[in-house]
Amino acid sequence: MCELLDRGVQTLLVAPSTSGRAGVELLRWLGAQTVPVVLVERLPPPELPTIALDAAVTDHAIGAGLAVRHLATLGHRRIGLVTSRQSPHSDAIRTGWTTAVSSLELPFNGVPVLDVPPYGSPQWTRAVDEMLDECLAASVHAVLVHADREAIGLLERARDRGIRVPEDLAVVSYDDEVAAASDPPLTAVRPQKHRLGALAAQLALARLADPLDRPVHRVVLWPTLTVRESCGTALSRT
Questions:
Q1: In CATH, what is the architecture of 2-59+192-223?
Q2: pLDDT tens-digit series, residues 125-143
Q3: How much is the pLDDT for 237?
Q4: What 3-state class would DSSP assign to 53?
Q5: How much is the pLDDT for 235?
Q6: Helix axes 90-103, 60-73, angle to 10 degrees
Q7: Could you say which DSSP state residue 160 is in?
Q8: Three-class SS of residue 226?
Q9: Side by side, which strands form the sheet with 224-226?
Q10: What is the residue-wise DSSP string for 89-125?
Q11: Distance between CA 160 and CA 165 in Å, rounded?
């Protein structure tokens, strides 16, 4: 970033790590720059409650809630969750899943919740098998999976084990970058990434045009839900 600033860059759109001492120090450094800085898919941590950085973020908790509520409308009462261990959004998705399950008065007991290792790693197949075993044992027939590659990998592993999607297991992916290309096509929550990038650029340009009087802007976009074939219908559930 220093090199970019030295070359005359007038604004910065950044998605840095915000955790730990290093993250806090980086944000302090960004907040001290003379050019507009906009955080993308990041918010300052509680340690920096008044740092004057604009931000454009997705409400990933709301997105997880959309998925849970869709599955609930199809008659599912026990809805599992798989999150990617590498994703910075897994905590928010887990919070949204928990909030939606609680507000709908759905059961938590025995419902599998798993944070999986990287897709394709030696531990991947074991983790997915564990998830599928828990679903079978607890009569869980619906699951939200973050992200697309994890969801597609789960579909493939389920097929290998004779578990049909959506007949035996309804699956919603959280990402929707390649979900439509899976077999069957995945119902998916889609963060509006292109819109978010454009919005972040607009915030930076607005700050550039009005550096003194413009208040700090923290803008939140909701994801959308695209329904495809991987959840079936309420009438097809048994």
A1: 3-Layer(aba) Sandwich (3.40)
A2: 999 999 999 999 999 999 9
A3: 45
A4: coil
A5: 43
A6: 40
A7: H
A8: strand
A9: 113-116, 79-84, 142-145, 170-174, 187-190, 224-226
A10: THHHHHHHHHHHHHHTT---TT--EEEEPPTTSTTHH
A11: 12
Report the CATH superfamily, name and number, of domain 60-189+226-236. Answer: Response regulator (3.40.50.2300)
Distance spanning both ends of the chain, measured CA to CA? 56
Mean pLDDT (whole number) for 184-200: 98
User: Where exactly are the structural domains of the chain?
Assistant: 2-59+192-223, 60-189+226-236
Supply the DSSP symbol for 83. E
DSSP state of 180: G
**Mean pLDDT, the chain, whole residue set:** 94
CA distance 33 to 168: 54
| Stated length of the chain | 238
Beta carbons of 16 and 40 less than 8 angstroms apart: no
Higher-confidence residue: 118 or 72? Answer: 72
Classify residue 229 by its DSSP letter: S
2-35 residue pLDDT tens: 666 556 678 999 999 898 999 999 999 999 999 9
- Decide the pairing of beta strands 170-174 and 187-190: parallel
